[in-house]
Amino acid sequence: MNSRHIFSMCNKLLIQQTITRGNSFKIVKRPDPKTLKMPAPGTAPSIMDIIKEKIRLNGPITVAEYMHIIITNPTEGYYMKKEVIGQGGDFITSPEISQLFGEILGVWFFSETQKLGTSKPLQIVELGPGNATLLIDVLRVVNRLGYKPKDLSIHLVEISSTMQLVQANKLCVSHREVSIEKPHNYEGETISGIKVYWYNDLKKVPNNFSWYIAHEFFDVMPIHKFEKTNDGWRELLIDLDGQEKLYYRITAEETVSCKSLIKPPIDSGDRTELEISARSLGIARQLATRVDKYGGIALIADYGHEGEKGDTFRAFHKHQVVNPLENPGKCDLTADVDFFQLRIAASKTPSTENFALVMGPVKQKDFLERCQAQVRLKVLMDNAKSDEDREKIKKSYEMLVEPTKMGDRFKFMAFYPSSMVDLLNKYPPLGFSTPKSED
């Protein structure tokens, strides 16, 4: 039987068996996003259970995945459940130590902005605003410098609804959730009428002239950890041992992260350990591009290094350093910021556009003292109501600048528009250069 007869027979059978199809689908009503609610804290699986199940299903996870789960889990994540900053939390920040810190930053932004000309209308954009203490101190300065509510707006990048509410209660006389169609998810007004907006991503913040503040923001960004072996760079992963405890293990082969993140000049020198945050590099690039294209200045303040350190990943609980693989979700995970890598991500080069002029890093001690922090310190002490208050003010300042405390470990870096190169050569950036002595 030839092929023609076979096809002819099949066609007859198929024709005879042809049926009319009806509706073979079921209409399903999608849930209304406006009515969806997150489960109450404590009713969802614990962070440890989530991590263990993920490892059982998919194998070892990267340190970046581990941090991401702990930071962003909507109900059990570290920043989602409680206030974590201050004496009663797991760590304390410079703005919580002294009002002088935020005031100096406000003066710094204003001073550097004068080199650009007009700065109105102005957006103040803070990434990870914490308890909003820094922003309150900056706004106090801005008010003294003549900015009216119509001249500025505040834009806060915050993923934690808990911290968002803390910030709103401190900053605003009224605040509310908004429609899911809007780029921001929360809004409010200060007592003077300044509009405040909250976002879960920097990309959603309007592209306008802005002061960008990132204080102790990059140190919590998820990192990949790498070690150099005889066979080249390999990634450290987190796995479960026989007792159901988390531990580190090293990959036998190069991972995708090894191939995509470890590139010259990041892997230069004789380093045998690396920590790279892809998220940090992306945000640094965003800030640099925004500053260069739309105007403004970005200031980064964090504890970190200039590429000389390798293993800095750790956890804090009640102000004490603890094992980062124990009690996930209950401790603050952090890693020193590699300012060398941020510079690479943000710096303008001859072959690229929309990148910034990068200044720093400089030590916190040097930055504050070059910005005349001691002058402000004297004013605060002269206006103190008692000797006890004066002593507190003095000790707080010493905490900020002493090399053995925060003075050396914390560093500052700034991004300026690339068009300012001539201006900055003529008028060096405040805080990042030694002021000329007056005759």
User: Could you estimate the helical fraction of the residues in percent?
Assistant: 25-40%
Q: What is the count of β-strands? A: 18
The amount of beta strand, in percent, is 15-25%
- Individual helix count: 16
Quaternary state of the chains: single chain
Classify the fold: give the CATH topology of the domain at 71-223 and 277-425.
Rossmann fold
Helical/strand content category: alpha/beta
Mean pLDDT: 87
Poorly predicted runs of 5 or more residues: 13-21
CATH class of the domain at 71-223 and 277-425: Alpha Beta
Q: Give the N-to-C terminal Cα separation.
A: 111 Å
Major β-sheet, in short?
A: 10 strands, mixed
Q: For the CA atoms, what is the radius of gyration?
A: 27 Å
Coarse morphology: globular
* CATH-scheme architecture of the domain at 71-223 and 277-425: 3-Layer(aba) Sandwich
InterPro entries: NDUFAF7, NDUFAF7_sf, SAM-dependent_MTases_sf
Pfam families: Methyltransf_28
GO molecular function, one term: protein-arginine omega-N symmetric methyltransferase activity
Family: Belongs to the NDUFAF7 family.
3D architecture notes:
This protein is of the alpha/beta class. It has a domain of 302 residues: 3-Layer(aba) Sandwich (Rossmann fold). Helices cover 36% and strands 21% of the residues. The protein is built from 16 helices and 18 strands. Strands 2, 3, 4, 5, 6, 7, 12, 16, 17 and 18 form a ten-stranded mixed β-sheet that branches. Strands 1, 8, 9, 10 and 11 form a five-stranded antiparallel β-sheet that branches. The chain has a three-stranded antiparallel β-sheet with strand order 14-13-15. Helix 6 crosses helix 7, helix 10 crosses helix 11 and helix 13 packs antiparallel against helix 14. It is globular and about 60 Å long. About 2% of the residues have low confidence.
